[in-house]
HNH domain-containing protein (Cladophialophora chaetospira), 251 residues
Amino acid sequence: MQPTDKDDENYDAFRECLFSAVVEKLTARTKKIPKKTPIAGKSPRALPEPEGPDPSELAEFSEYLATDIFASLPEQLRKLSYYTLQDDVSLSEKWGLPLTLTVLDELSAHMPGETNDNLIAYGLIEPPKSDIQSFMAPVLSAYIAAVTTPPPKWADTRTSACEICEREWVPMTYHHLIPKQVHAKVLKRNWHEEHQLNRVAWLCRACHSFVHRMASNEELAKEWYTVDLICQREDVQKWAHWVRRVRWKKT
C-alpha cells in the first residue's frame, strides 16, 4: 500500500529518518579511530568515509522498507502533526516522547513480517543482541519529533536545499548551530554573544544526524558554529559528496 496524498509530507519525513538510521548503522561498522587528547592548534581527526552499499542501492532499500513500514502504522500516527497534538490530548499521551515499550511493541507487531528478515539480512539488527524494536525506536522517535515540531520563529530563514549536501528533494530540518543544551555554558564562558544563540542551519535529516555524530554539543558550540566552518571539515566534504548521490525515485 502506497502512502496517500495527505500522508506524503509525513512519509517523506519518515523515509528520511529511516534512511538516516540505516546509514548510521552501516557506517558504524567502519573501524573507529581511538580518541586522543586534542593537540592545541590542530583540527580534530576526521570521521572515516562512509562505506557499504552504493548510495543508490541503499536509497532503494530504504524506500522499500519505508513504504511498507509507514503503511503499517496507525492512521493517526501517519497523519500526526503539531496541530493535531494541540487539538487532541489523547494523541499527546499516546505519541509523546519517549515512546513506551508497550507502544513500540504494538507498532512492531503490525509491521510486515518480511521487515524483520530484511533488517537481519542487511545486518541492521542482530538477534538476540538487537531486534526490530531497538532499531525502530529511534526512527519512530525522530519521525514524531520531526512532524510535531512547532513552527519556528526563524521559518523565514528556510532554504530550499540542504546547506551541506545541497539536495532539494528531501524534507528540511533546522539545526541549532549553537546547541540549546549548552546555551548556559556558552554565555557563562563568553564563547558567543546572546544574540547568536538562536542561529540555525537548514539541513536534511541525514546531514543533521551526521553533524551531531561528528562532534559533541560543546564542540559544535565552540568550533563548528557556522555552516562554513562545518563544511571545511574533510569528513563533512566526503559525506556530502556521498549522500548527494542519493536520489529518491518519483512515485
User: Anything to note?
Assistant: The beta strands are 172-176, 200-204. Confidence is low (pLDDT under 50) at residues 33-39. DSSP finds 13 helices and two strands in the chain.
